[in-house]
Amino acid sequence: MRLPLCLFLVLAACHNDVSLGGPNTLVRVDPEPNGPKLRPTGGVAIHTGLDRDGDTFLDDNEITSTQYVCNGSTTVQCAGGKVLTGTITVRAAGDWSQLDGVDCIDGELLVAGTTGGSMPAHPDLRIVTGDLVIAGNSNLTSLAGLDQLRRSAATT
Fold it and tell me: Rounded distance, CA 56 to CA 48, Å?
């Protein structure tokens, strides 16, 4: 009786899945043109999967899930204050500090692979002109840290 139970525990401990997050979980965001999936303005394809070959890049054969996000139909622009430009990536707890005092991100905000259960408050952040992507955060249970965000081009 002990042998099957031990075998089950060993097998369960070795299992890894994208839905669980973890160090091998990767996210890749690719531009997606106007077409059957994203009309009329195109958008992005958000791919997730496990890095099976250890090259820290999500290869096409490693993709296990894809979500599509349409570009917004109206232009979103920053309205002053402290502005960060480009793709801002949050992958660890320390990365949140780059958003302290920021009013606008003129670009994308990608929150992927974090291990925390909540986001710290960023009351000044109100606008993201590009995509807001939150994916592969297995313990994240609340988006309250971004509750002041009022405008974004696209959100998933």
Answer: 12
Tens-digit pLDDT string for the chain (156 aa): 444 433 333 333 444 444 445 667 888 888 888 777 666 777 888 888 888 898 888 899 999 988 887 776 667 789 889 999 999 999 888 999 999 999 999 999 999 888 888 889 999 999 998 888 888 888 888 888 888 887 665 544
Q: What is the strand order of the sheet 43-50 is part of?
A: 25-32, 43-50, 63-70
Total Cβ atoms within 10 A of residue 29: 19
Strand-strand pairing, 43-50 and 25-32: antiparallel
Q: Within the chain, how many helices (H) and strands (E) appear?
A: 1, 9
Going by DSSP bridges, is the β-strand pair 127-135/151-155 parallel, antiparallel, or unpaired?
parallel
Question: Exposed (0-12), middle (13-18) or buried (19+): which is 123, by Cβ within 10 Å?
Answer: exposed
Query: What is the spatial distance between Cα 105 and Cα 109, in angstroms, rounded to a whole number?
Result: 7
Q: How far apart are CA 65 and CA 55, in angstroms?
A: 19
User: How big is the chain by its Cα radius of gyration, in Å?
Assistant: 18
Contact 131, 41 (CB under 8 A): no
pTM recorded for the entire structure: 0.58
